[in-house]
Amino acid sequence: MSTTSIENIGVFTSGGDSPGMNAAIRSVVRTALYYNIQVTGIRRGYEGMINGDMFIMDRRSVANIVQRGGTILKTARSEQFRTIEGRKLAYQQLQKNKVDALVAIGGDGTFAAAKIFGQEFNIPIVGMPATIDNDLFGTDFTIGYDTAINTVINAVDRIRDTAESHDRLFIVEVMGRDGGLIALRTGIATGAEAILIPGTTTDIEAIYSRLERDRRHKASKIIIVAEGEEEGGAFKIGDQIKEKYPNYDTRVSILGHIQRGGSPSCMDRVLASRVGVAAVEGLLDGHRNEMFGLIHNTITSTDFSQTVKHNTVINPNFLKIVEILSL
Ligand code: F6P
Fold it and tell me: What is the chain's Cα-based Rg?
């Protein structure tokens, strides 16, 4: 490990929470302490930075959190940090608390802000990808995604039970305001009859004819819809189907924020732990303005400007798989 002038790393979580954020915090704190660097916890993301809501963390302050959902540092979205005045205040608070480097745990909004802040005030910042949406370029999986998709399949399996008993069609809405990666994988894993996701053209007529084709030989049918789908949310799709096929017994179920909570899966805990070690070591090695992630099971760093969700792509084979397997 090269020796830099870093003496006190500030760590914070920002944006929507995700299971595994606590494992990420623990990894950052313990790695920094391992290298004899002080760690300052910053509560409520950029908002807490502006308000000086910070405290020194020791190895016991992250005891027994690797298995807990949510984030012990809390999280927030800060309007004030979007302004230069807000960022100046944040910088002054960091100076006051002698924080000379940062690890940001969050999604692309977190990194976009980190990039601006790091450049404006010449403060070393690295990031760790944490969002249930898995919509960041520069990592195969984000911290929280695996837990969230397992929460979804557990819920949809239960819905399938009741759908099968009543010969019903269910439209199930999952999270994904701007992307459909939760819908894509859970659609395959639950044997959904169709999935609707943003960024792909939805051939609603093709879905209708599939439903008709299956009418006689399938008792239950499940359509998974990502919340950001351009056709509208699950209720709108449900209304369209009810209008076209009034004889179908159709129900809508919105899974909502249960997808963001819960104890992180083994995959998420290990991902958070590995990336946390890499992020701190990366900072000490002189990395700046980069997110650390895992690509093909190898630690990778990607410039913040590249991590934006718009660079992520939907694998069209996954959609085809749903079509083939829902026969
Ligand atoms: O964490 C990302 C996400 O789950 C999106 O898919 C969703 O639209 C959004 O958060 C909702 O977050 P909130 O209710 O906190 O605004």
Answer: 22
What integer pLDDT is reported at residue 217 of this predicted model? Answer: 76
Instruction: Report how far Cα 206 is from the mean position of its chain's Cα atoms.
Output: 31
Residue ranges of the domains in the chain? 8-144+264-309, 146-260
List, for residues 280-306, the tens digit of each pLDDT value: 999 999 999 999 999 999 999 999 999
The residue whose C-alpha atom lies closest to atom 4 belonging to ligand 1 is 175
Output the CA 16–ligand 1 centroid distance in Å.
Answer: 6
Structure tokens at 241: 């189907």
User: Which residue from 81, 10, 73, 4 is spatially nearest to 50, judged by alpha carbons?
Assistant: 81
Query: How far, in Å, is the centroid of ligand 1 from the Cα of 61?
Result: 28
Domain 146-260: top CATH class: alpha beta
Ligand 1: distance of its center to the CA of 256 in Å? 9
Whole-number Å distance between alpha carbons of 67 and 65:
5
Residue 177 Cβ contacting ligand 1 at under 6 Å: yes
CA distances from 30 to 19, 73, 124, 231, 280 (A): 19, 15, 19, 46, 10
